[in-house]
Amino acid sequence: MGAKKGPVEGVVYGVRLHGEFEYRYIGLTTKSVTARFRQHLKEAASGRKTPFYDWLRKQERSNVAVDQLDWAYGLDALGRAEIAWIALLRREGQPLLNLAAGGLGPTGVEWTAQMREAARVRSTGRKIPPRYGEENPFFRRKHSDEQRAKWSADRKGTNVGSANPNFGKFGADHPSFGHVMSDEAKALLSAQRTGTGNPNFGRSASAETRAKMSAVRKGRPQPSSRRSAHTRHHTNKGVFKDSCQHCLSDRADAGE
User: Fold this and answer.
1) Which of 17, 139, 173, 218 allows an S-S link to 169, with CB 3.0 to 4.6 Å?
2) Which stretches within the chain are classed as H helix?
3) CATH architecture, domain 9-123
């Protein structure tokens, strides 16, 4: 039998720059301060978006100092110590980047409009390489049915009709007007949707579904994709191309 575990010991630590006496982050850990800071560096390198990690990414590793500020015996005491330190330093006006007031468990942080705008500005233009497979922190996980239902209810009707931010915008007024995807982007999308990446890979519609689709389309003219493209890009725009069989056919029908 293993030894019985007693209350956990831990420390409260502060992160600052060498030569400065203002702390930018206060945390707690039951590990060594050095090991915990290595975890912070790893999180920052992964691209995690918080004010502290955004700040940490901009610093030279050798210019960042980590100080042990307090020691506590037991998790509850450790959480209270962190809360006390954050409150004290904030009263002194130190520029802490902590989002919460500290402590253990859920912090109940609610993002304000100002916090969201600041996060948007920090992330604009940032190039973070995508992480696939086991490297993705959400690998083999999925959102609960309750969470999915909540998102569905929150978003229902938000982009319908006049609620859509692009409602009534056409031509040059539409934000996508004139946008052309690069060859690299097209190749990436194609690779992602080929084979097993295609959401319909290995699937086929049931007989019931096929019957419903047939009934909906019954009696509706279904021009071929080439004919449809000819109408949209040639006829409607007054364009004639010798390589288009429909252009030649239309000219022949007109007796030209």
Assistant:
1) 173
2) 33-45, 51-57, 75-91, 113-123, 145-155, 183-192, 207-217, 225-230, 245-253
3) 3-Layer(aba) Sandwich (3.40)
Beta bridge partners of 28: 12
Residue 33 and residue 64: Cα distance in Å, rounded? 13
Is pLDDT above 90 for 1?
no
Report the alpha-carbon distance of residue 173 to residue 33 in Å, rounded. Answer: 54
Q: What are the residue boundaries of the structural domains of the chain, listed by start?
A: 9-123, 223-256
Q: What are φ and ψ of residue 22, in 5° steps? A: -100, 130
172 contact partners, CB below 8 Å, separation of at least 6: 178
User: Residues 50, 66: contact at Cβ < 8 Å?
Assistant: no
Find where tokens 């692009």 sit. 166
* pLDDT tens per residue, range 73-91: 888 888 888 989 998 998 8
